[in-house]
């Protein structure tokens, strides 16, 4: 219960930083997606049900402050989680580079998924030129923030749990 | 049967969650009234004090920095001059900002008086959480009488419309968002068309090839569509392209509003709150 409450608080804190703090520090239209980094982490470390529900919730949080139709980021984050989870067993979870690569590619996939969903459901096909224009800078920015995220994590945790973020233990047969 | 379910549990769970998420998204797309759900209201209400708190803290830090910290070195040189210098500098620094604020508010007030509808002033507090959409959050919500669909304007012209409301905040879809479309007309020759957002600018769609549209023509709201009153400025034509074939010409419009400097807006209310 404590961990769940901590997760909710952390998600709100990250959302607050993303929405209210970082736009004051970064150039216009350059916004990192901190919640997406959490989804990438969940894809490597949590089971299908809990990770899926948490990713959906994080997407719903982003929906409150982004886009015009509620649910778009919810399904996008869920699909990204499922993709990472499907491939998680094949990744080298010992490598810290993994989260950086995931942050980069998850941003690209997010752009593609949002474009596809808008094309299929919302008749907002004109969104993709906007997405294409910003996709690469945002992917690089998210990678940079993933690097900061890794730097902020205490080293003791890696040693104690064996491997990068304790992932090797969770995925060991 | 249970073995089969257990074997395919992850696949079934994933499929179930994707289906539920798709249904929720699809359901929200089709809602026309009361589009703000409980989760959105809850999150907005939780975040509102933090956002206004951050504003206050940043204003205080900026105030301390501007008025005290950067003058510490000069104090050693001459206390009397420094004191006077600090006072004068503080006044001078605040004058341009006060003048600009005064100008903006006066323009808004003039504009407000021109409108037949009741206009509620509001402050922009945050932008969209991602760089892919064009929405902003304002510091007034349903308790101030704001409802979904209400037009949002500034002195220069149309800014957008309300898409979400909570008691103390509301979200505005800017006209430059790709999902925004407004019924408009060219002021000079009354050609009708739809102005759609393209991220940074606007495009004037469904303008027939033979219609006489020139660079510099002003685009205004047509009043059709039931959201914006007639005659509000949208922007000016900056590019016209007529291809050899096709029914329509391609017209680009530069918005009248500078969205990178959006600070105060007016929400046009339907009635007194």
Describe the structure.
The complex is a heterodimer of chains A (173) and B (273). Chain A is mainly α and 173 residues long. Chain A has helices at residues 2-25, 34-45, 48-65, 72-88, 97-122, 127-152, 155-161, 167-171. The two termini of chain A are 28 Å apart. With 273 residues, chain B is an alpha+beta fold. Chain B folds into 3 domains: 1-23 and 36-115; 119-174, Rod shape-determining protein MreC, domain 1 (Thrombin, subunit H, Beta Barrel); 181-259, Beta Barrel (Thrombin, subunit H). In chain B, 37% of the residues lie in helices and 29% in strands. Chain B contains 5 helices and 12 strands. The mean pLDDT of chain B is 82. The chains are: A mainly alpha (173), B alpha+beta (273). Chains A and B meet through α1, α3, α4, α5 and α6 of A and α2, α3 and β1 of B.
What's this entry about, in short?
The complex is a heterodimer of chains A (173) and B (273). Chain A is 78% helix and 0% strand. Chain A has helices at 2-25, 34-45, 48-65, 72-88, 97-122, 127-152, 155-161, 167-171.
Distance from first to last alpha carbon of chain A? 28 Å
SS summary, helix count of chain A: 8
Order of helices and strands of chain A: HHHHHHHH
Radius of gyration of chain B from the CA trace? 25 Å
Number of DSSP-assigned strands of chain B: 12
Instruction: Let me know the average pLDDT of chain B.
Output: 82
Radius of gyration of chain A: 16 Å
Biggest sheet of chain B, strands in spatial order? 1-2-5-4-3-12
Question: Mind describing the biggest β-sheet of chain A?
Answer: none
Question: How many angstroms separate the termini of chain B?
Answer: 60 Å
Keywords:
heterodimer, A: mainly alpha, 78% helix, 0% strand, B: 273 residues, alpha+beta, Thrombin, subunit H, six-stranded antiparallel β-barrel, six-stranded antiparallel barrel, 5 helices, 12 strands
Strand and helix map with partners:
The complex is a heterodimer of chains A (173) and B (273).
Chain A: H1 2-25, H2 34-45, H3 48-65, H4 72-88, H5 97-122, H6 127-152, H7 155-161, H8 167-171
Helix pairs in contact in A: 1-3, 2-3, 2-4, 2-5, 3-4, 4-5, 5-6
Chain B: H1 2-7, H2 9-30, H3 38-67, H4 72-77, H5 79-114, E1 118-127, E2 135-138, E3 151-154, E4 157-165, E5 170-174, E6 181-186, E7 192-197, E8 202-208, E9 218-221, E10 233-241, E11 248-255, E12 264-269
Antiparallel strand pairs in B: 1-2, 1-12, 2-5, 3-4, 3-12, 4-5, 6-7, 6-9, 7-8, 8-11, 9-10, 10-11
């Amino acid at each position: 219960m404590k961990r769940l409450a901590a997760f909710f608080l952390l998600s709100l804190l990250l959302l607050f930083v993303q929405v209210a703090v970082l736009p004051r520090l970064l150039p216009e239209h350059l916004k990192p997606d901190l919640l997406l980094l959490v989804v990438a982490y969940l894809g490597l470390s949590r089971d299908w049900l809990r990770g899926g529900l948490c990713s959906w919730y994080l997407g719903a949080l982003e929906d409150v402050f982004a886009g015009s139709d509620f649910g778009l980021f919810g399904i996008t984050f869920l699909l990204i989680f499922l993709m990472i989870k499907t491939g998680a067993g094949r990744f080298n979870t010992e490598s810290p580079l993994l989260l950086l690569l995931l942050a980069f590619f998850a941003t690209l996939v997010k752009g593609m998924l949002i474009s596809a969903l808008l094309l299929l459901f919302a008749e907002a096909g004109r969104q993709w030129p906007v997405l294409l224009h910003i996709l690469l800078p945002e992917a690089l920015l998210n990678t940079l923030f993933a690097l900061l995220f890794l730097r902020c994590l205490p080293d003791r945790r890696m040693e104690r749990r064996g491997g990068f973020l304790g992932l090797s233990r969770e995925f060991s047969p | 049967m249970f073995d089969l379910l257990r074997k395919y549990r992850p696949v079934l769970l994933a499929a179930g969650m994707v289906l539920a998420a798709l249904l929720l998204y699809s359901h929200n797309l089709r809602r026309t009234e009361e589009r703000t759900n409980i989760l959105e209201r809850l999150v907005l209400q939780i975040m509102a004090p933090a956002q206004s708190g951050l504003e206050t803290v940043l204003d205080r830090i900026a105030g301390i920095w501007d008025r005290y910290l950067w003058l510490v070195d000069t104090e050693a040189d001459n206390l009397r001059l420094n004191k006077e210098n600090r006072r004068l500098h503080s006044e001078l620094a605040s004058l341009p900002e006060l003048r600009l604020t005064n100008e903006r508010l006066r323009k808004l007030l003039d504009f407000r008086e021109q409108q037949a509808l009741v206009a509620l002033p509001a402050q922009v507090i945050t932008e969209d959480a991602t760089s892919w959409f064009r929405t902003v959050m304002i510091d007034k919500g349903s308790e101030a009488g704001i409802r979904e669909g209400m037009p949002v304007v500034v002195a220069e012209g149309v800014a957008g419309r309300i898409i979400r409301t909570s008691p103390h905040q509301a979200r505005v879809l800017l006209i430059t968002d790709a999902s925004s479309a407004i019924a408009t007309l060219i002021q000079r020759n009354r050609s009708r068309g739809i102005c759609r957002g393209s991220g940074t600018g606007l495009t004037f769609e469904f303008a027939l090839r033979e219609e006489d549209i020139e660079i510099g023509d002003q685009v205004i709201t047509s009043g059709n569509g039931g959201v914006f009153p007639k005659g509000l400025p949208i922007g000016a034509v900056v590019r016209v392209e007529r291809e050899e074939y096709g029914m329509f010409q391609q017209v680009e419009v530069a918005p009248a509003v500078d969205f990178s400097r959006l600070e105060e807006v007016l929400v046009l209310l339907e009635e007194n709150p």
